[in-house]
Specification:
By secondary structure, the protein is of the alpha/beta class. The protein is built from 37 helices and 40 strands. α32 packs across α33. It comes from Belliella baltica (strain DSM 15883 / CIP 108006 / LMG 21964 / BA134).
Length: 1116
């Protein structure tokens, strides 16, 4: 940001700062106006890297010259640079170096290169795309913002938006699809200009992540201190601050002086939560008034929590701390493992994936050796990060899996943060280990503000693959920081043991946790011994980095790491169960394997020696069903669900005599599906590949092997996706030679229609058909379509389906016995069942074609497991919609669905790979245009007639397409009363009797509640919406896949990305947003806080997540 005469000139870095913090932009502008003095920080490492970057840029220029490119160069600082850039573009130079682009007297920048491409524009039969040079192997968000702004400027000069933007790194060229990023950049730029053009800014220095490295930090912190900001109360989030301010409380002091128990009932959340926060504010305030004397209070004891979680100390205990950078691709890097053991500190460093794997194995080997010699040893850490990271590394590199499982099974890891939070209240502003150190007298070797600069710079060097530029001072600062954390964890442990002793001195008994065995079952050990030689053979000479593998190696890598996939997934069920045990009632509302907020109704039915108790619950979407065994929140068995009624929100639970007096506030379900049959199918496939080769031309497992290798379908059919797609798909399928055919069906594209016609035509050709999917419901839906089509065609067929259902419910033969279904193979045209049936050896080679419905949800491993049953696979689905949930941490490439494996980073399937159904029979053109651009590479189109769909009459929502209703709120996480009120008003307006829906045929219907569906990402919001509008069908996205309505309303609920309880990946999930938008025929209404459109994106992938929401608002 600088002044040029009377105008402000902005650069891409100003926009990046605005994204990080709105107040930062305010301060920068004040400094430019002379109202503040801007702090100065000189970074010598950054200066050195800038010089290297300029040298790299010159090398690229020299290579273009060597290639004989016609190059136009502009000198930096040339006052005619804008005009020269325009002239060079009009003349059609191959390369324009140091192009000056932007808007004079507003946005300006120097694009490293403009590259000429053969795409027509106003310039002629060519146009230009932006290329920036960066030393970093991985692109950062700031680079995307930079090239997006330059691309926008180039688009204006040539009258055409470039399809791609480029970053050239030492590793090669990286392309980015402009439509995936530009809407986010345009919207943020618009907000930025609105902010800087205000006469007076009312931004406030709310704490954000950027504070750690911001030069303005001291200025902002002083302001918050002067205001006695409520954010200084430990554990007080934006939701709680909002609630407390609604009670007229503005400062920490006012909250601390509030009478106890608190005199108000919060509108959201439990009163107990606010009582704890008031007590926390009080102890901090008392400490402040006593010259910040450290004060602590012991919390009320609760069995299995707090001090009850401390095992017997041992001199061989290890104190662990990791340093990691989540922005090092792919998936982050744990670059340091440090530990304190027997009075000595040690550390291991990693610069890349190879070294990360090595240091993880080194530490695990040490820990297992110590544990074997001293079984009483435990590994202490502070907060869950270390264990989460170790699970990720174990899964990522498929190494030390059994050893890690042993440590988890024996509860060797002990999280002292959990002990602190459940055992002590302390006069600290954050329950970080650094803030607690004053209680146990630990003094750090290095100041935290000092080390944060060194850490951020070193992590930048990691991300740019330039760690050789790290200074000795930088490395020593990080080492000391990690050493402090390790030793501090040890000192914290000693202090907690002394507090535990205080309770004992009061005469209270606190039992130690029972020691847990490390040994795995004989069955698991036998399995590991069996698969090891197969795994070793498939992984022989396998490169660690995926980029270095051939397609055959990648196929073998995926198959090898599927040998233990089901065991890995099963372990994760238990990890997930233990995670649920630590959640609050409010948090459990969003969990499918739980039912929370239970209240005993008083209704009890005696059944022999047992009882059936009835409970009411808050609305939530749950997988708990009648017949399921459930557990209490102590992890022990409670009983069995007799019935659950979502309409009345009641559940009846049968309990034995020992549990009859227990009335749980929440119940959990731990569901364990048998996977041995699928596991055997994968092992059989792997053995064949080991003995015969993955690319053998022999027919056994050929379809599965081709799928693994992502090869084009094997057939003599010449694909032509420009004609009749149903005919194309049918003829292509008929010509398959022990292969597979993917068919991608976007929302409303007639996937089931296409499949039913294909199936009947193949039956007419004498082929035997199999049908499978993730659920019986999906299978049955497809069979009904086939049955109806056969009936309409007067072509009788015989279907046999494996399903547990009463006789006569379905018009075809059903049985729940595998042997009975097997006996029907010869006499049936179609055999149907889930993957559990098709993976059995009795069905090997049973059918000519196996149709896998919703193959965008069915995992790749399940698809491979069932492939042995058929000569050919037909994969129907859409990986752009909802995917199969998984619990396990699996190696990259093994965790995806079958169709996602084929498409990889593509949004749509290529013509040579399979069939893309490019017509929707549902969405109005205005809705389809958005959906197609954002999720289907502009390849999805509405059929003729859908443009007639519209809302008419006396309403503010007449017309069709997209609407955005801005609803101002703050501090909301998973529910918003403000949005409930706004949506209630929308529904009332639409359903008052004088509003009409016109369908595609031009037929009119008065709108009522049946024409509207309301969707929200969170169960808590669904519950509030149902309470306000019980007549409307309301649910999460998962509930509505496959459904549609004339009008769909989407309630985001979360106030801002920072408030989102499941993070950006869930909030902005393109799969979920795609499903939500594409349910609508005529009108889609998004109701949200405007702050949802301004996430602080740290990477291109995060910008890509937020972009569809930003583009949506542009298209309204």
């Amino acid at each position: 940001m600088k002044r040029q005469n009377q105008d402000f000139i902005y650069s891409p870095s100003d926009l990046s700062n605005f994204i990080h913090c709105k107040h930062l932009t305010t301060l920068d502008k004040l400094a430019l106006d002379g109202g503040l003095e801007k702090p100065v920080y000189t970074n010598k490492v950054m200066l050195a890297l800038r010089e290297k970057g300029e040298a790299f840029e010159k090398d690229i220029l020299a290579k273009f010259q060597e290639e004989g490119k016609n190059i136009y160069s502009i000198e930096p600082g040339d006052y005619q640079a804008f005009e020269k850039t325009r002239h060079a573009m009009q003349q059609g130079y191959d390369i324009i170096y140091q192009a000056r682009v932007g808007k004079e007297n507003e946005w300006q920048g120097w694009a490293d290169f403009l590259i000429k491409v053969e795409e027509s524009s106003d310039l002629g039969n060519f146009s230009y795309q932006v290329m920036d040079t960066k030393l970093a192997s991985e692109t950062k968000a700031a680079t995307i913002i930079q090239i997006s702004l330059y691309t926008e400027a180039v688009a204006i000069l040539q009258g055409k938006v470039p399809e791609l933007m480029w970053v050239k790194t030492p590793d090669g060229d990286i392309s980015y699809r402009t439509d995936d990023f530009m809407a986010y950049v345009r919207l943020v730029k618009k907000r930025f200009l609105e902010a800087v053009n205000l006469e007076e800014s009312n931004t406030y220095p709310e704490p954000v992540m950027h504070c750690d490295i911001c030069t303005w930090w001291e200025v902002c912190n002083k302001k918050r201190r002067d205001d006695d900001h409520l954010g200084f109360v430990a554990g007080m989030g934006s939701t709680q601050i909002k609630e407390v301010k609604n009670q007229g409380i503005e400062t920490l002091q006012e909250f601390a002086e509030l009478t106890s128990p608190i005199p108000f009932q919060p509108n959201k959340g439990a009163k107990q939560t606010y009582q704890k926060l008031r007590d926390q504010a009080n102890i901090q305030y008392r400490s402040r008034n006593e010259n910040y004397r450290p004060i602590y209070e012991l919390l009320e004891l609760e069995e299995q929590k707090g001090f009850f979680r401390l095992p017997e100390p041992s001199e061989h205990d290890i104190y662990l701390d990791l340093e990691g950078d989540p922005l090092v691709e792919p998936g982050g890097l744990e670059y340091m493992i440090g530990w304190y053991y027997l009075g000595e500190y040690q550390a291991l460093w990693a610069k890349d994936q190879v070294e990360e794997k090595h240091i993880f194995e080194q530490f695990m080997s040490l820990a297992i050796t110590i544990k074997a010699a001293h079984p009483e040893m435990h590994i202490y850490h502070y907060a869950p990060y270390e264990v989460t990271a170790f699970k990720r590394l174990m899964g990522k590199y498929v190494t030390f899996e059994e050893e890690m499982d042993q440590l988890l099974r024996s509860e060797t890891f002990v999280d002292l943060y959990g002990v602190v939070k459940q055992g002590v209240r302390a006069s600290v502003e954050k329950y970080s280990i650094k803030d607690l150190e004053k209680f146990f007298g630990y003094e750090r070797e290095i100041d935290l503000r000092e080390v944060s600069k060194h850490k951020s710079m070193y992590e930048f060097l990691l991300e740019t693959n330039k760690t050789d530029e790290a200074t000795p001072e930088m490395l020593e600062a990080i080492r000391l920081y990690n050493q402090d954390d390790c030793i501090s964890t040890h000192r914290l442990h000693v202090w907690l043991e002394s507090l535990r002793q205080e309770w004992i001195d009061f005469g209270v008994e606190i039992l130690r946790p029972e020691p847990k065995a490390m040994d795995a079952s004989e069955k698991i050990t036998e399995h590991q011994l069996r698969i090891k030689p197969i795994y070793d053979a498939l992984m022989a000479d396998m490169p660690v980095n995926q980029e270095e593998r051939t397609s055959q190696q990648q196929g073998k890598y995926i198959l090898a790491n599927m040998l233990d996939w089901y065991r890995r997934e099963k372990k994760s069920f238990w990890w997930e169960f233990f995670r649920l045990l630590d959640l609050s009632e409010e948090e459990l509302l969003e969990e499918k394997n739980a039912l929370s907020m239970l209240r005993f109704t008083g209704n009890r039915e005696p059944v022999k020696r047992s009882v059936i108790d009835s409970y009411r619950f808050e609305y939530q979407e749950t997988d708990i069903r009648a017949g399921k065994k459930v557990k209490n929140m102590d992890g022990k068995n409670l009983g069995e669900v007799v019935s659950i009624d979502m309409r009345t929100r009641t559940v009846r639970i049968k309990k034995g005599p020992s549990n009859s007096d227990l009335h749980p506030s929440a119940i959990l379900m731990l569901e364990d599906f048998p996977s041995e049959v699928k596991e055997e199918a994968i092992i059989s496939l792997a053995i064949w590949v080991m003995e015969n080769g993955i690319d053998s031309k022999d027919t056994p497992y050929k379809a599965a092997r081709m799928l693994l290798l992502r090869q084009k379908p094997d057939s003599d059919f010449q694909a032509n996706n420009d004609g009749d797609l149903l005919q194309t798909a049918t003829h292509w399928a008929a010509a398959l030679n022990h292969s597979y055919l993917p068919i991608q069906g976007p929302p409303g594209s007639g996937k089931s229609y296409t499949a039913s016609r294909m199936i009947l035509e193949l039956i007419k050709q004498g082929k035997k058909i199999g049908v499978t999917a993730l659920s019986h419901k999906v299978i049955t839906n497809l069979l009904e379509k086939v049955w109806e089509h056969a009936d309409d065609s007067n072509f009788p067929i015989l279907i046999s389906q494996k399903i547990d259902i009463e006789d006569g419910i379905l018009p075809w033969f059903t049985s729940n016995t595998n042997e009975v279904i097997e006996s029907k193979i010869s006499s049936s045209n179609i055999i149907a069942g889930t993957s559990f049936m098709w993976a059995k050896t009795m069905f090997e080679g049973a059918v000519d074609y196996l149709f896998v419905d919703e193959a965008g949800q069915l995992s790749l491993i399940d698809t491979l497991a069932v492939a042995q049953s058929a000569k050919n696979l037909i994969l129907l689905g859409d990986p752009q919609q909802l995917q199969q949930p998984q619990q396990g941490v699996h190696p990259e490439g093994t965790e995806v669905s079958a169709l996602a494996h084929i498409l990889q980073e593509q949004q749509t399937i290529r013509p040579e790979q399979g069939v893309f159904l490019d017509k929707t029979w549902r969405m109005h053109p205005d809705i389809c245009t958005f959906d197609s651009e954002q999720f289907y590479e502009n390849k999805l189109f509405p059929i003729e007639g859908l443009e007639h769909q519209a809302i008419t009459g006396n309403t503010a929502y007449s017309g069709s397409g997209l609407r955005f209703i801005t609803t101002l709120h703050e501090g909301n996480t998973n529910s918003s009363e403000e949005e409930v009120m706004a949506i209630s008003a929308i529904v009332e307006d639409l359903c008052k009797g004088d509003v009409t829906y016109i369908n595609a045929k031009g037929e009119a219907k008065t709108i009522d509640s049946s024409d509207i569906k309301i969707i929200s990402p969170y169960n808590a919001q669904v519950s509030k919406l149902k309470g306000a509008m019980p007549e409307i069908e309301i649910g999460t996205v998962d509930k509505f896949q496959g459904q549609e309505a004339p009008i769909v309303i989407y309630s985001v609920a979360t106030s801002s990305p920072q408030d989102a309880p499941r993070g950006m990946d869930f909030l902005y999930s393109p799969h979920r947003f795609n499903v939500a938008v594409s349910r609508a025929r005529a009108l889609f209404i998004l109701v949200a806080s405007p702050l949802i459109l301004e996430p602080d994106c740290k990477s291109p992938s995060q910008i890509k997540l937020a972009n569809p929401f930003c583009r949506f608002v542009e298209m309204v």
